[in-house]
Specification:
The chain has 243 residues and is mainly α. It has a domain of 124 residues. It has a two-stranded antiparallel ribbon.
Length: 243
């Protein structure tokens, strides 16, 4: 049917014309409706064509087989996700293990450093005439904590003696040289209390200092010295100074 025929039918159907009827507006409205109708019809035709093309893609496909494949894809994705999570956990466990090993290595390094310093102090102590003692206790054990407090590593990695209660390198007054462990032992041997851990040595012996217990000083065993409290050690020092 042509547009002219449609307009003629519409004019017949719409008879009689009501008062105030605007024919121009009426025709414009009809044209708009026809355009919308035609556009919708074209859209329906396009969608129908696309649906037919889409349906052709599934021709010959078994729905049960399709669902099986779909489930396999879902299972594969779940397995991949589990693998990712397991790998993340494994990486975290490895990081924790590495951290623990790092702490263990640090502890071993500290222990090794302590053993090196202890060995150096022992050697210097006995070279300076330190008493060997009897039994499990040793006179070097009296000297050890005081010596460890005075030892540090310098920039070159060598052991250096620092001032008491300080981090500054200690120097020998007479030689103006930085003190070594031998000089530190000499200092300890002249101490009123720590000197009891050294064998007596006179100026004439070639040692260069008087060490050990002087005549008139009380002689205590290493066990007795180590059993003294801080107050008793201070009291002993005051008594030795009076001699």
């Amino acid at each position: 049917m042509s547009e002219t025929q449609e307009e003629q039918q519409e004019q017949v159907v719409d008879q009689p014309v009501p008062p105030g009827f605007n024919e121009s507006n009426y025709k414009a409205t009809l044209k708009k409706i026809r355009n919308e109708r035609d556009a919708q019809a074209a859209q329906v035709k396009e969608l129908s064509s696309r649906l037919e093309e889409f349906q052709k893609q599934f021709e010959g496909i078994d729905p049960a087989k399709f669902e099986e494949y779909r489930q396999q894809v879902l299972n594969a994705e779940e397995e991949r996700q589990r693998t990712v999570e397991e790998q993340a956990k494994l990486i975290k466990d490895k990081e924790n293990m590495a951290q623990q090993l790092g702490q263990k290595v640090s502890q071993l390094e500290q222990q090794l450093e302590l053993e090196k310093r202890t060995a150096a102090i022992r050697q210097a102590f006995f070279d300076a005439g330190g008493k060997k003692g009897n039994g499990e206790a040793s006179f070097v054990d009296i000297i050890m904590p005081y010596a460890l407090q005075r030892l540090v590593r310098d920039d070159s990695g060598n052991l250096a003696v620092v001032q008491k209660g300080s981090k500054l390198v200690d120097y020998d007054v007479q030689s103006a040289k930085a003190k070594d462990l031998g000089m530190l032992m000499s200092e300890f041997s002249q101490d009123e209390v720590l000197g009891t851990a050294f064998e007596p040595r006179s100026q004439a012996s070639g040692g260069g200092f008087v060490s050990g217990v002087r005549p008139g000083q009380p002689s205590l065993s290493v066990d007795e010295l180590m059993s003294l409290s801080t107050g008793e050690m201070a009291k002993l020092g005051r008594e030795l100074k009076k001699l």
